[in-house]
Amino acid sequence: MIETNSVINIKIILISIICILLFSCSNSIVNSKYVITNFTEKTRDTLYTIEGENYTTGFVKLKGTVNDSIYIIINDGYKKYFNGDIDTISKVDYYGTNPMKFEFDPYKAEKGKLEVEFCIL
Question: Is pTM beyond 0.70 here?
Fold first, then answer.
């Protein structure tokens, strides 16, 4: 009888821990989507967290075509260069302490069409 109660107590503790973990994770996604066709100027965007939510990842998804080199900067980090046909996702660790920043620079490109999704989750 003692073994049965111990097993039940362990199951209750494990179920409680799993529930706490599931409900403590953020379901709030903050994102911005747009299409860049103007290659004469830089595009900047900033995402702000929802108060009380937890975040772990920031990403930028790029898809499209440009006629020469472009670059992006995520959260004031280093430049990531792309050219030609682009279909990529760049991820960074993000914990919600500051707004998440994105910058697109057309650099040498003069034309193209680029779909951008900028997101924190």
Answer: yes
